[in-house]
Records
---
Amino acid sequence: MTPVEYYHVVFTLPAAISAIAYYNKAVIYGLLFDIAAETLRTIAADSKHLGAQIGATLVLHTWGSALTHHPHVHGIVPGGGLSPDRSRWLACKPGFFLPVRVLSRLFRRRFLEELEATCRRGQLRFFGQYAELNDFTAFTQWLAPMRACEWVVYAKRPFARPKAVLAYLSRYTHRVAISNQRLVALDERGVTFRWKDYRVNGRTRNKTMTLEADEFVRRFLLHVLPGGFHRIRHYGLLANPSRRENLAKIRELLGVVPALIETNADVKATAAVPSTFVCRHCGSPMIIIDILQRSRPIRAPPVERAYA
């Protein structure tokens, strides 16, 4: 983490696209990630706004408070970036990152362009009431109203401090759909849980909802991701291949010395010896914490011996 402001930006898909996303999770969730990141980086690179290379961590949520299917990504973005020549840190205005209306317009245009191209390549599938969209002409006609409706992109207040970012990530990145604290009862009526209603005169109302057990399970299973799909992704300056180098450059420009804490002599000794094993995914050295000895195989169950 670096000692700068961190901003919280949310990109949401319209209800109609959320409906077809359920049948095309990997494709549409992937587009949601990539187009949201592209939008942030494009607007931030524009000299009319920030004129800098930025980084972002995006976290996918697919649920609303009532467990409905509501795909959106939360973006956690440092409040600034590197100048194009990487010689300066360009900070955004205090309390303001990027204009959300500009973000919304570009996000809508780019997402629809890529969604249409994806359908043209035959990478989308439609069933039930949406089966007719398998015809590309029908799909483009269905898509047309999406170009005129508002797409919800909004920025929350910046995090109070870098530690608050870590607190947010620890609470929300590995929770799926509902936490235990929201569960109220399980009885003959079904499952009762707390939820927030955002539609009452623009205010948030805390309510309780009871669903039959099978409906509760159905809603929960809406949010199971495709196998191997990553719900947290890093882009730009925070992308995995170059993150270490970029963070070192940013700290240098900000005059920040990273705190290196050695917990014991073993850690120091390990750091001094070149690693024998390297992670094939990220290239980082792997540390041996234990060696499991191979046990002798059991070739057959023991046989009882009869004694005279």
---
Amino acid sequence: MEVTKIETIPIATKLPEGRGMGDSRGFGRTRETTLLRIETDDGTIGWGEAFAPGRIAAATVDELFRETVLGMDPFDVESLADRSYTDPYHFGGSVFVQSCVSAIDVALWDIIGKTVDRPVHRLLGGEECRTLTPYASTMYFTEANRSLDRPIRDAVEEGFTAAKIKIGSGFQDDVERVRIAREILGDDATLMVDMNGNYRPRQAVKTAKAIAQYDITWIEEPVPPENESGYREVKSRIDTPIAAGEAHYGRFAFKRLIDDRVVDIVQPNLGRCGGFSEARLIADMATTENVAVRPHVWNSGIGMAAAVQFAASVSSYPHTRNVPEPMMVEFDRSENPLRSEILETPLDPSGGVLDVPQGPGLGVSVDRNAVERYRTNRG
């Protein structure tokens, strides 16, 4: 078996004027990413996602990877991540290189799973896993005036028992947003907050101490991702766990987070961290050092499916059934047809339970008509 075709497919969608949404760093109306379709000589097709703009991803694949991947045996997939650091030398640490490696890697694992008729999470060494706990990623900052409580009420009505909300726009606003979320979710629900790196350490610490009374499971990106000394300062001054990783890519960036103990939870994104091969290495490093792993997801339906397969494979070490801490997967609740429409059977988080696809590979089927509707390089 060998790879005979590689196709990069940029897709995008845009919210109407005035309906932008985002985080403490600003609003946006456009969602875009790049799908990758790989086909082998026996007709097996695999899908991946590069969490990067289409033109950049396409150029990177063409310039650095097409010649290597064409003719490649999909079962050699784990060599790709290693080679990305050495050939092309000096470029392996680039976010765009790692995003493209991610897409190729995930697509090849999808092909392997289809070839051996097993879901990827079983191939990665995980036990059989049927369900995960989804958490609603919600309460975004919006351009249009919207009551703060509506997104959380929507999540509760959908059956979510866990949610992550956006904060990071100022002390008073942070406390009020957290108070409202906890009041609506109830005392037994799991609540996380995301500052999106918008604070200096002292600002993050001030908010963290004020919201600790609301039983926060983790604080995500309290300072910018490149500010490792800031992470250490925040961690030394608060008790709430810290999470990060969506803006990190490749094993070496995550190794620094883990070795330096600057976070309690690492959050690799399967469309950027290097794919399943790197994510498995990251998870092994993290669990060895007793750091938790919870994938970040802000992707299309393909990236979502990859995150679910990865999450289902992660070891629960050191926990046993006597320490209940379910593996949680982020489920963005913003309007995003790239997630909700491009799969023939979209993943469904309603009822507070997310079924892990048990079919071969990623376990999902792509709706090619929907992909073409959102494709940006037609013709």
